[in-house]
UniProtKB/TrEMBL annotation:
This is Phospho-N-acetylmuramoyl-pentapeptide-transferas e. Keywords: Magnesium, Membrane, Metal-binding, Transferase, Transmembrane, Transmembrane helix. PANTHER family: PHOSPHO-N-ACETYLMURAMOYL-PENTAPEPTIDE-TRANSFERASE (PTHR22926), PHOSPHO-N-ACETYLMURAMOYL-PENTAPEPTIDE-TRANSFERASE HOMOLOG (PTHR22926:SF5). It is found in: Membrane. GO terms for molecular function: metal ion binding; phosphotransferase activity, for other substituted phosphate groups. It comes from Bifidobacterium canis.
Length: 295
């Protein structure tokens, strides 16, 4: 629990201190938001508002998790897990893609950054790398972070191995690409009003954090009362969810109406894939064939 608190405080402090610093830097560089001419006239007053705020959000989440992981390693000897590492990789990679898009907008001084094809290509590349790594790297249970299949409850819903390992891998990669594209673009579309994306994401991540912490205290094989869950590394994803929630909270202070800064695609794409990863848990099993990815 102390590790969780350390992560929360670190993320909140980084956001509250880093956001006003970024606002001043962006103002100095004249990197303001450009508004579509065909949009509502009421939105034109937002022209020139500093953007790239997602940089602080991503940094706050990474540093918050890093501080928590360092504390756990120094006090308990617990090394960071691949589950957390892959979640952060997905978030940072999509945030990088969003940063390239945002930077292109402010450099070209228009509201069009990367082309639709260019952004989609970047999402496919990063999602494919994530999917392949998820099938390879192990969790503490000894099984990979994910296996080729889908489930919505503890029992497998659809196992992709019905057609062989190669086909299963391809189907899994396609499925992960679909999910990541859906979540990142859904959150990106919600970033249209002051505080909307940050506020709704904060609520979602808070819910994920509660679920992850509950699962941590009710793992199968432990002495407890009530329901039990069979998931991998819930504390790590819970810490990431908590850090994301408080990062959104700290950013919301400057992003609520009238916004002093926008998160841009840097923040919305990163939060989208981070949200998708935090709601995904894998059910470990003693049998490799029955273990599926709940993605």
């Amino acid at each position: 629990m102390i590790a969780l608190i350390i992560g929360i405080l670190t993320s909140l402090i980084v956001t509250l201190i880093g956001t006003p610093l970024l606002i001043r830097i962006v103002h100095k560089l004249n990197y303001g938001q450009y508004i579509r001419q065909d949009g509502p006239k009421s939105h034109q007053v937002k022209r020139g508002t500093p953007t790239l705020g997602g940089v602080v959000i991503v940094l706050a989440i990474v540093l918050g998790w890093g501080a928590s992981a360092l504390y756990r390693y120094l006090t308990e000897g617990v090394a960071p897990t691949w589950a957390a590492g892959l979640a952060l990789f997905a978030m940072v990679s999509m945030g990088l893609l969003g940063f390239i898009d945002d930077f292109a907008k402010v450099r070209k001084k228009q509201n069009e950054g990367l082309t639709v094809g260019g952004k989609f290509f970047g999402q496919v590349v990063f999602a494919t790398i994530f999917a392949i790594l998820a099938l390879i790297v192990p969790t503490r249970s000894g099984f990979p972070v994910a296996q080729a299949g889908m489930s919505f409850i503890e029992k497998p819903f659809l196992n992709f191995n019905f057609a062989g390992r190669l086909v299963a891998t391809i189907l899994f990669v396609v499925w992960v690409n679909f999910l990541m594209a859906a979540w990142t673009n859904a959150v990106n579309l919600s970033d249209g009003l002051d505080g909307l994306c940050a506020g709704s994401s904060m609520i979602a991540f808070a819910g994920y954090a509660v679920i992850a912490v509950w699962q941590m205290y009710h793992l199968k094989g432990q002495s407890h009362s009530g329901f039990s869950y069979s998931v991998s590394d819930p504390l790590d994803l819970g810490i990431i969810a908590c850090c994301a929630a408080v990062a959104c909270l700290g950013f919301l202070w400057y992003n609520c109406n009238p916004a002093s800064i926008f998160m841009g695609d840097t923040g919305s794409l990163a939060l989208g894939v981070c949200s998708q990863r935090c709601r995904s848990s894998r059910t470990p099993s003693s049998s490799r064939s029955s273990s599926v990815a709940c993605l």
